Amino acid sequence: MQSFFDTHHLNLRPVEPEDIDTLYQWENNTTLWEVGQSSIPFSRYVLKQYVETINDDIFAAQQLRLIIEEKSSKEVLGAVDLYDFDPLHRRAGIGILIFSNKYQRRGYATEALEAIEKYAFHFLGLHQIYATVTDDNSASIKLFERLDFEHTSTKKDWIRRGGKWMDQLLFQKITPFQQRKFE
Questions:
Q1: What DSSP assignment string belongs to 141-169?
Q2: How far apart are CA 127 and CA 150, in angstroms?
Q3: From CA 173, how far away is CA 8, in angstroms rounded?
Q4: pTM, full prediction
Q5: Which residue, 97, 179, 180, 175, is CA-closest to 140?
Q6: 108 conformational bin, left if phi > 0, alpha if psi -120 to 50, beta if neither
Q7: 133-154 residue pLDDT tens
Q8: Which of 71, 67, 75 is nearest to 8 (CA)?
Q9: Burial bucket for residue 18 (CB in 10 Å: 0-12, 13-18, 19+)
């Protein structure tokens, strides 16, 4: 039986110490800072501490980051995150990064999101997952729409990029599976 984290082409795995250089590259890429809401560079020392102390228990950490690895080559393609995990209201944010253009638009993001979605709905019992995307990110908008996320709201002038204000779109997906109502 396949696990949630072992798909046809990918392995989704926890962050390992060997990933520090990759994380360093991602976390210090200023074009990604608006997505991660960072505004300062990270040192290798800080990332090493993060990797050493990361709590793999989503209930304790309220987040889960998994590295997306191509199954046959073991090449690291990106990461998928569940964040703002709220077990009371049974929801979490979801984010994905396929870092290199070489691996974008090849179905890897779809495959990784489908896997983490199954984990979120079937194993964690979440009622919904959500994603936020800037209004100019047509590839991500199409990705979430293709996976049946619904655009439910727009935060006007939410992200500032290069002196220009961008709207941020909220996409939600309510569990497609029947669950007993809370009484």
A1: HHHHHHTT-EEEEEEEEEEEETTEEEEEE
A2: 14
A3: 23
A4: 0.85
A5: 97
A6: alpha
A7: 999 999 999 999 999 999 999 9
A8: 71
A9: exposed
